[in-house]
Amino acid sequence: MVKERMSGAAGVRRAAGAHPDAVGPVRPEPSEPPVPGPPPSTGPIPVEEAPLDPRAIARASLDAARNVSLWWTSSGIVVATVVALVVGTRAGAFVLAGVVLVCAVVRAVLPLPGPVALAVRAKALDVAVLVLLGSGLAVLAQILPR
Hints:
Layout (H helix, E strand, L loop, with lengths): L53 H10 L4 H19 L2 H21 L13 H21 L3
Helix pairs in contact: 2-3, 3-4
């Protein structure tokens, strides 16, 4: 019986040397030392460039339950749904349009950073999107059959 080697390199052999006429490896020529750049910033790291910390994200998600803007927005949607079920679809759509338009006014009036539930992008863009959404809902509610 043939005795095999017990190393992890079974069946692997060393590569043969290069052809005797082959050119050796190219070595980089020594160059000038690198020019020092600006010193690293010692100030606080901007939020956009800070590394993500899973513990901070978990704390923020737990803190979101205590945020008033999320509760107000959610309760407005629930009220619009109840009105749509009890009174009618048209009335529920008008209530939802009203909730969205109130959110647009709140986003426009409050200082930065704004309510968490409403502050998604730049203030002007958030207000424009909310006004267009509220107006569109009101127009669509108007043309709904009774």
